[in-house]
Each structure stands twice: as structure tokens, then as C-alpha cells.
Design a protein that fits this description.
single chain, 135 residues, alpha/beta, five-stranded mixed sheet, 13% strand
């Protein structure tokens, strides 16, 4: 005949919740969200883009260049200047053909913007676009 202590221990043992199915579901959800997340590479600097009525969404595999309001040119948070554009884009276009998108501040002089576009085209970029905000 079981004692009172043995019955109490058996009841406590039967009342525990198995956490392994819950952990399995949490890990499966975590893996799902990691796999389905799209990582977009940004230029790393804040640029005040102008608005355009014809602005549209471009694909995610673009080469992003940023021109700040004080004339600095960045790729992937690194200042490259006008002289570094051609070499950077040539290297990036070796693996596959991708469009170049220039995120220029709305106060950037037109001469500097044209120099950046020329360097990108001389590097072999077939498509060079300007980033703008949709209204």
C-alpha cells in the first residue's frame, strides 16, 4: 500500500508539462523567419532624395551609390569619391549584370551627378538610375 508521500510524488510527477514540442515549434518558426527575410543592402548614409511622379520600385540586386549634400560619394558606407566609382562598379559587375542606382541628395550639383553617371557607364553599367521618393 503506497504511503501518502509516494502518492504526492506521483501526482507531482504527472502534473509536469513537456516543453519539448513547444521548443520545436519555436525553433521552426525562428528558422522560417530567418530563411524568408530579405536583406537589402543600403548605402549607409542618409540622403534627402527628391520626389518624382514616375518613381517606381526596383529590384533588390542593384548597386547603390549615395551622393551626400556636401558632395561625398559612398558605396556600402565607405567613401569612394568620383575616382573610386569606376573600379568599384567594374568589380561588382564581374559576377553578374546589375543596374546602378544613385541616391543623390536634392542639393547635389548637376555637374557632380553627371560625373558619377559617366563613371558608372564607363565602368560598364548598362542601366544607371536615380533614386527618388514617390509622392
Amino acid at each position: 500500500m503506497p504511503t501518502r508521500l509516494q502518492r504526492r510524488l506521483e501526482q507531482q510527477h504527472n502534473e509536469s508539462i513537456d516543453m519539448s514540442p513547444l521548443l520545436d515549434v519555436v525553433f521552426i518558426l525562428l528558422i522560417f523567419f530567418i530563411v524568408t527575410t530579405v536583406f537589402v543592402k543600403e548605402t549607409g548614409v542618409e540622403v534627402d532624395k527628391p520626389q518624382a511622379m514616375t518613381a517606381q520600385q526596383l529590384e533588390k540586386t542593384v548597386i547603390l551609390l549615395a551622393i551626400t549634400d556636401n558632395g561625398e560619394i559612398f558605396y556600402d558606407s565607405n567613401p569612394i569619391g568620383v575616382a573610386g566609382i569606376r573600379g568599384t562598379i567594374e568589380q561588382l559587375l564581374r559576377s553578374q549584370e546589375r543596374p546602378v542606382v544613385i541616391q543623390a541628395d536634392k542639393h547635389v550639383p548637376t555637374q557632380l551627378l553627371l560625373e558619377v553617371i559617366d563613371e558608372a557607364k564607363l565602368a560598364g553599367a548598362v542601366s544607371v538610375n536615380l533614386a527618388a521618393l514617390a509622392p
